[in-house]
Amino acid sequence: MNVRQKHVPVRTCIGCRTAQPKRAMLRIVRTPDGEVLPDPTGKKSGRGAYICYSKQCLEAALAGRRLERALGCTIDQTAILEMEKLVSDQTL
Predict the structure, then answer these.
(1) Are 3 and 14 in contact (CB under 8 A)?
(2) Is 10's pLDDT higher than 80?
(3) Which residues contact 11 (CB under 8 A, 6 or more apart)?
(4) Where are the domains of the chain?
(5) Which long-range contacts does 5-13 make (Cβ < 8 Å, 24+ apart)?
(6) Average pLDDT of 77-87?
(7) Using CA atoms, how far apart are residues 71 and 35, in angstroms rounded to an integer?
(8) Does the global pTM surpass 0.85?
(9) CATH superfamily of the domain spanning 10-91
């Protein structure tokens, strides 16, 4: 009997540039309204970028302006604080 393996989507972290399964990463989304916010469910509509649940990856993505470039907009401080909270919650 031939059992097919389920396809696992892979995404690249914009902080460290490593490829991982989509579910193991935090999606940051720019909504059609232009709002930037974390999307842990991965289901919100809009332009998305992925980072590992790592403070180092988040800092690299923000310091190099990679996240802003990937989303095509500037990111306000409240969105950054929300992302930092989600990343620190996951690493504990």
Answers:
(1) no
(2) yes
(3) 19, 20, 21, 22, 25, 50
(4) 10-91
(5) 11/50, 12/50, 13/50, 13/51, 13/52, 13/57, 13/61
(6) 93
(7) 10
(8) yes
(9) YlxR-like (3.30.1230.10)
Nearest-angstrom CA–CA distance, 50 and 76: 18
Strands (E), 5-84: 10-12, 19-21, 25-30, 36-39, 47-52
Phi, psi of 5 (to 5 degrees): -85, 145
- Mean pLDDT within 67-90: 92
> Which amino acid type is present at position 81?
L
Instruction: Give the Cα separation of 83 and 28 in Å (integer).
Output: 8
Angle at 32 between CA 54 and CA 17, to 5 degrees: 25
Give the residue carrying structure tokens 């332009």. 47
What's the start-to-end Cα distance of the chain, in Å? 42
C-beta atoms surrounding 92 within 10 Å: 4
Q: What's the confidence (pLDDT) of residue 30?
A: 96
